């Protein structure tokens, strides 16, 4: 089992540093006008943010740590916030702050990037963290109750991911499953291999999971277009 110190160092500093470097490279190769179709947001920013939190959640599932529901988050008998909830909140705050800090430092050193582009990236990082915090909590809850079917789901979606490629243009996606596959990193499949026999009601769990995923992504698509159109209008 990986120590807590190593977990926190990797999740809160190493991953944000890699993400910040990725964002700076992205800004240096693209202009703000390329953001209108949402490709950067969906296929790069959200994917990297999902990778860190789903990896964190999958470790909790694999090691059978306690993951609270949203009800327990606010109505825990041990207080308003549970220990796990506070740890997750702290993780999101530290990771977001570290990523933004690295991003700002890198952009200050590279004067070729515009302030508007930097603000757009920071805004999408903050939005995606709120978005995926709820999603990863939901994912962990599903995993605790139906983790035997995650191997089926993840295997299929990872195959979809490998066939479609991470950077499929948003307006040419063949279906909602390809969108979902873009949010599931290979690390989660590795964790899911640890499961045992398949559950008898796997199709019920799969249906609930797919429905919630679609609802989350529809809301995310709507908010993305509003944000990107507003920024392009202000420019």
Automatic annotation (TrEMBL):
Residues 6-198 form the ABC-2 type transporter transmembrane domain. Pfam families: ABC2_membrane. The keyword Cell membrane does not apply. The keyword Cell wall biogenesis/degradation does not apply. It is a multi-pass membrane protein. Keywords: Membrane, Transmembrane, Transmembrane helix. GO terms for molecular function: ABC-type transporter activity. GO terms for cellular component: membrane. InterPro entries: ABC2_TM, Nod_factor_ABC_transporter. Its main location: membrane. It is found in: Membrane. This is ABC-2 type transporter transmembrane domain-containing protein.
């Amino acid at each position: 089992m990986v120590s807590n110190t190593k977990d926190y160092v990797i999740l809160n500093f190493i991953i944000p540093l890699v993400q910040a470097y990725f964002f700076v490279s992205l800004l240096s190769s693209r202009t703000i006008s390329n953001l209108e179709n949402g490709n950067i947001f969906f296929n790069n920013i959200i994917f990297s943010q999902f990778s860190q939190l789903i990896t964190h959640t999958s470790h909790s599932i694999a090691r059978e740590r306690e993951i609270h529901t949203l009800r327990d988050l606010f109505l825990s008998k041990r207080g308003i916030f549970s220990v796990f909830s506070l740890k997750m909140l702290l993780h999101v705050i530290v990771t977001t702050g570290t990523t933004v800090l690295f991003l700002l430092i890198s952009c200050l050193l590279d004067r070729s990037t515009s302030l508007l582009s930097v603000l757009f990236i920071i805004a999408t990082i903050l939005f995606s963290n709120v978005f995926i915090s709820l999603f990863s909590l939901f994912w962990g809850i599903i995993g605790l109750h139906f983790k035997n079917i995650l191997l089926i789901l993840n295997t299929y979606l990872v195959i979809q991911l490998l066939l479609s490629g991470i950077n499929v243009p948003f307006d040419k996606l063949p279906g909602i499953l390809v969108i979902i596959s873009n949010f599931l990193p290979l690390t989660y499949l590795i964790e899911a291999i640890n499961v045992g026999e398949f559950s008898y009601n796997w199709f019920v769990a799969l249906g609930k999971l797919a429905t919630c995923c679609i609802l989350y992504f529809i809301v995310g698509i709507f908010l993305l277009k509003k944000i990107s159109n507003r920024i392009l209008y202000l420019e």
